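Students often ask why we bother predicting the structure of a whole assembly rather than each chain alone. The short answer is interfaces. A chain on its own may look different once its partners are present, and contacts between molecules only exist in the joint model. In this exercise we take two input lines together and write out one structure for the complete complex. Read the inputs first and try to guess which parts will touch.
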Amino acid sequence: MRRIIAEDLDWSLATVSSLSNLCLQCIVNNFEERPIYEDLTSSEKDFIQNRVSLSLPLHFAANVFPDGVYWKRCCEQKWKVCDVSNYGESWKRMFFERQLENIVELFVPGITEPKTVLDMVTLCKDHIKKLNIAQLLPPVKEPQTEDEEQASELTLANEDDKSGMDHFDFRILLGKLTNLEELHLVYKVKSCGMNFEWSMFEMTNRDCESLAKALKSCKKLKQRHAEPKAFLSRPRDVISHLFRLHLSHLEDKKCRLLVKYLLDHTSLRTLDFSHNVIGDSGARAIGKLLTKSKLEILNLYDNNIGGPGAKAIAQALSKNTTLVSLNLCLNRLKDEGGQAICKALLNNKTLLHLQLGANGVTWLTALSLSSMLAQNNTLKSINLSCNTLGEVGGNALEEAMSRNTSVTECSIHLTDIEERRVSVINQMVWNNQFRKQETNPREKNTENAN
Amino acid sequence: DFELTREPESSSVAKATLTKQTLQDYVFILICPTFTAQRIMGLQKRLTTLVTNIQTAADAKEMERRSGMEDNCKIRYERLKDDAKACQEKVEEIRKGWSIVTQKVVYSELQSVLDSQQQLCAAVIEDKKKLIRELQRERRVKEDQYLKNLRRLDEEIKLMLDRMQQQFQNLSKAYREELTQLQVEADLSHKGALNDFYSSKEVKNLKTKYAKQKDKFMKQRQYLSEVHKRSRQHYKRIQKEVRYTTAADARKFEEMWATMEEEVTQLAEKALAIDSLICKHLGLAWERPSAASMESPGPCRSQEHDTNPTSHPLQTRHLPHCSQRMMDASVGPSLERDSEHCTGVEEGELSSEMLMKVMELLCDETGFLVEDKLWKLLAPMEKNEQTTVKLHSLFAVLGLEEKDLAKLAEFLLMYKRQQEEQTEVRLHTELSIPCLFLCVSRSSLSHPARDTSVEEAYWDRLGNIITEDKLKLWDAAERELKQYE
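Now the answer. The structure tokens for the assembled complex follow.
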């Protein structure tokens, strides 16, 4: 006798399904008019979430369905790749975060109604924890005639002309997201093709101002009825953990403005201003931020920081007790900056990862580094690649590594050090790592992950 | 260890280095047998550096580019400065010239001065234009370089992705190997631990005891299984015998019946012939009795009933005796209950005293079947009540029900009719338990009892083919004949 094996697990041979199933199906079909959900058992709730139409109005669905299969279905319908582990295993959070990111990324200032953003925000303000906005569109420019184009080529652009290129204003958004922890921003336009203009990849001054104001923390007055006196609640930071603004042509002035408003964010843990054009005065502002807040990770990769800027950061570093990772690769630190940083680390007992690659430092810095390593035994990983350290530098490093036991990663590629010496240093570092691995096997993965 | 030399320009070379590295890695994995942790770490480190090397190389290039750009900027700046200076000089000249122009009145002189001014201005403009063109050319070159750079970066990113992929594969392979090795080690250590555990003294005695007992049980089991086998074979043989004997009996019966029938019919024919003669002599009408009365039911019908499943042939002998007993016993209680099932005539045949005696005997014999509690309850009651209660419980124990009693009564009545000759009720004191169970077993009772009434009727008919009257007639005829002698 032939048997039918159904691929659809819900299909049953019974010509008439059970009464409860029929009822649930009826509920599903009429869900919008009569949303019966709360009173059901959990398996019935799953049934409903699995079958209810995905075209329900969002505001309705957001209120009815908690995190679950419904949101999984929504996500998978909208986007091809859905990795829920990036969103704290919450499909609802993934859906709303991606929705909001999409809306902001496609927002054309001057054409798109801010209402679209605001509507979405009212639905989901409690679910958004991370916003990773990968592009910000400039307003549409009127196509110039040929004469105008030629004329504009020869005239110098004024600062004022750029005022027409303001991007999305974050003031309408950031204050309302009560649970925001991470904010990643890039002022760039994806797939602009032949319409490339440098101004598409820059933040304007007004952008910076509006962003800075948006970052201002909100102080809330809370009145308790039970107690006679009202008290101020702790001011809530707009972003609690991570702020990343990279590849946006952030220069000193803008950097200082933003940092001014970030000083209030006492819970900020990670600051990423990589691939910008921050110079010394910006670095000074960041140094001030270092002293005031509890930053753990500071990333200033690929900027324009020079010796004076590095000195400011070094000064903050010598008193700092929270910073764990500092990345100053691809700046213009030179020996002046490099030595300052190394000297600062004599007193610092918390920094674990230091990256000074591609900064034009030489054997002088290597010397100060090795003298620092003699005293410092918290530093775990050092990156000095792409700096011409030479033989003297190599010698100093070799000496330092022979005495040091804490450094488990040392990157000295392309440093003009003799190959033999490089392998010796690597061997010593490897021994350190292995020794640590034997005593504490758990740390292995975290070390290599860095 | 892996050394990063100049980053290769073309991707094919890059791929070649990549494969070379992976080959080295594989060799490393194969050769390094012990210290899996170290091996894994080394592998991780090596593979990660492969990926980060690309970044480092890119950083180096970027630095170069930046320094190049700085130099270029400086050069350009210098150049612009020079140009501005030269221009400045020329502009000064032109300005001086304007003052001369205003002085001149004569047309030709004015003309020439203006011409010279124009030339100077043209020269300045020419210089500027040249500068612009050069700067534009530089810009175009820079743009091309930028494009080339972008392409190179794209390739590097692809290479990085490749390497990351490789790293992923290699590492997962290494982890899997490590895992299997750990499992093997864990198994070994586990077994080793167990062995140690078992080989220690305190537990050793138990082990030997256990082994001994195990042997003993094994032997017993073997023995019992053999016994079982043999008894089964025996049983099978006996079953075959039974079947054979029943078949043989049936055949014998058939033959007997056939011969008897033949004899009887012959005798009947003879008697009928004589009868007809006598009648003829006496002048009486004679008619042959109907053929229906001579009809023989045949041996087959009785065979049907012969195939009643009587569970044990050895005990069929006991069947008549105990069934007699049961019949009497059951009829007694059925008297009290299902009076409609019993024909009153037969009941009357049984004397109640005999019945009581039988019942009591039954009770005594099967007393063991009655529960102890019931014994205690019965003690204060009268004897009669005792017996009835006992019978009730007995029947309950033996699985009889009321409707079965009816069948039982029928069955026993039939037997009673068959054995009417037997006036004595043999009171056997010994009653084998199996045969009692046999009697009580439903199967034997539920089947229709051997109904031999039809045969009896037949024999009776044939036996009485010469009726009483005819016999009287014959006697009279005989007397008359004798008178004539």
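Check your guess against this: The two ends of chain A are 61 Å apart (CA to CA).
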